[in-house]
Each structure stands twice: as structure tokens, then as C-alpha cells.
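Each record in this resource describes a single protein on a pair of labelled lines. An example record follows, reproduced without changes.
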Amino acid sequence: MKILRIGMITLLALLIFVNVEAQRRPAAKKGKGKKEKVEEKLKEKVEEKKEAPPAIKQEESWKHPGGNLLSTSFSSDGKSAVSVNSEGDILFWDIESGKKIRSVHYGSKATAAAFFGNKKVGLAGGLDKDNAISILDLTNGKETQTLAGHKGGVKTLAFSIDGESILSGGWNNQVVLWGTARGDIVRVFKGHDAVVNAVAVSPNRVIAASGSADGKIKVWNMSTGELVKTIKAHKKGVSNVAISPDDRLILSAGIEKGKDKKDAYFLKLWDVATGKLLVKNTNLGEHKAEILIALFSPNGKYALSADRGGALKLWDIAAGSVAPQKGETPPPTEVRSFEGHAGRILTATFSPDGSRVLVGGDGTLTIWETETGKLLGGGAPPASVTTPVEGALPATGTPPGGVVPPPP
């Protein structure tokens, strides 16, 4: 009887064990429930956010409020940039993030500005500064020189490539060359009959160019002050001028009357030695507003133009489907249209290696990749990037980019 009782207890224990195992195994096969899976995914997303760097919002980057932007510049290594507006606010930027690094305040409104890299800036004050030009050391924000003696308001400034000289032009129809070390007037260039809108210094400091509201460009010998050449460039005024890195070409932007007798906006390329017009764009819609920016890339291969309407265009100086005449430079071809900068474009600059372009206007900066036309920071995403097909001719028979050889 005792043996029978032990056997029944053993059998009962075995049945209980089998039942427990049967219930446990299906649960294991079923795996994680829906709730567990959702919780796990949420946990993974939280972990990802912890690991990834915070994304910089467009509205938090590349904003320079407070006034129209007067000038922009890259550092020598291209990793940072600096901008200044008409309120005298100078901001430093990290190129990759678009974040402001630091700021310097000039203490007065400015009518014109020019940078020497990210080392110093020249700022022309208004009447409250007696039209004096201040040179600021950007490493500490301190004013190192005050250039006094420019009669009338200053509209334009340009540094020499070594930063030792600065050129100014303005309402008194004169161009003044200053030494930045001592703050003295080195030379005054006289000869313009209208307001000087733009000045440029050649890389080798041999010549300077200036453009005025009466449409004339004057080329000066910087050593002697002699007027080398006068070019009747644009009938209704010169907006900007630039000298190529090899000192052989002058690029000008200006206004003329179009075929419909309305204002038309042109880029023109000139031979420095002869003063001869080499090429001009056709104005078949390339620029529909006044061109305020005209500059060469550091290697001289490209030219950049930009206007009040926000159009930004890159031109290939050496390319073109129309064969040039003997001794002429081939006409430039429009390589790319950059679309995405809202509002006026008032200043632009290439990075030292020419790979990027920094553009400024009404309190907003945009930065672009030269090779692709890709918008890297600021503004709105570009609607499109226009790249003409090589060798294709528009219906008018003009070469790609709407450029034509100069008139005979």
C-alpha cells in the first residue's frame, strides 16, 4: 500500500511537470509580443538620437540681420568666413556648420567695406565718421588705422593682394590709394567725371581699375598715378569691375539701353593692354536686374556674376563654341546658374581654392559648391541647377550660355 501511494505521488508530479513544460514552450516559440517590439524600436531611436550630432536648422544658420551685407571673405584655409553689414556688425562663421563663431561691432554705420582675408577689414564710415576709413584688426576687433581725407562719401573699397594698400572711390569722382601701415594717402587718381562705383587692384599691384556712373572704366598705373587707358564700357553706368589673376583682362558689369529701349544688363570682357572689347553676354535673360557682382575665380578660369534679383551665374572664360578671331580671348560660356538665394545679392566671394562661393544680400548668406552648383548652406533648397549641354546652340544661333563674339 505504501509502495502504491509513492507511485501515485510520483506519477502526479510527472504530470504536473509535463503540463508546465507544455505551457512554457509555446510561449517561447511565440517570441516577443507587439507591445515589446514597439518599445524596443522606440528605444533604438532614442539611442540613435543620442549618437547622431544635432542637425543645424536653416533658420539658425547663415543669418546676418541688421542691415545690407557689404562684404564677405574666406579665411586662407577656407574653413571659416567673415561678413559685415551696413550697421557695422562683423560676424565670423564656421563653414561646415554655418554657425556663428564670434562677432565684432564697428561702432558706427558703414557705407562700404572690404576684407583682407579674415585678418583685417576696411570700413568706410558715413558723415558721423567724416567719411573716414577705419582699418580693424579682426583678431582682436581693434581699430589700427583711421584713413582721413577722402572728400565726399565712400562708395567702394578694395584691398591689394598683400593687404598693404587699400583703394577707395566715391562721390567726389576721385580714386584714392592708401597705405594701411601708416594710414597715409599714397596717391590720388583724378579723371572721372562722375561718381566712382567700383574699384579693383591687380594682383601684382601694377595697375588699378575704376568704373564710374558715366559708363567709363579707367586703368591707372599704381606707381606713377598715370592714367593708362579710358574705356567707354557701358552707356548708362558701370556697376562693378574686376581684374583677372594674370592682369590681362578686365571684367565689367553695367547698364545699357536694350533693343526695346529699356534698361539692359551686360557683362563685358576687356583686354587690358589694348582696351579692346573681347566679348559680351547677349542679355537673353541671363540677368534681368542690375548686375552688382562681377569677379574672377582664383585660377582665372571662371567669372561670377550676380544681380539685384538674386540671379547668380558662373561663366567659363576659356570655353565657347564660336571660334575667336586671332589674338582674341574665346567668349565665356555660362556654365551654371545657382538658384536658391532669395532677394538681392550685394556681395560674393570665392574660397581661396575656388571650390566654394559665399554670397550675401539682405541679411542672409548662402554658400555654394562651385563644381556642382549645390547649395551647401543657408537659403532655400535650389529648384534647379542649369547646366547647358556642350555644343548645343540656342535658336538664335548664339553659343551656349547666350554669349556672342564682340562686334567688329
In short: Confidence is low (pLDDT under 50) at residues 26-30, 48-60, 320-328, 380-408.
